[in-house]
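The data are quoted verbatim here:
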Amino acid sequence: MSKTIDEYFAQMPAAFQKDLAAGVAATYQFDLSGEGGGKWFVLIRNGELEVGKGEKQSPDVTFLAAARDYVEIAEGRMNSMLALATGKFKIKGHMGLAMKLQKLFKY
């Protein structure tokens, strides 16, 4: 059964691999549309994590997707590269930081 967007963001602190985040300083913005969507942010500074609802000014990376598609990507039921190629998932900003985010969490 699919998790909701709220459930994914709520479980991020438990899945965060602090040791891999040493030296990372980034602000990630998630702009998820459609049913169950909304805006969330993830801040990583000096191995510390902050996750919350809302918008942050001048994020380093912004992820845009329909909430349903994001859940499918996060659960591994939709290939993120295919979603990027077909426009279902968009990334704006620092691509290196975008790719690093996935490696900092273990689900």
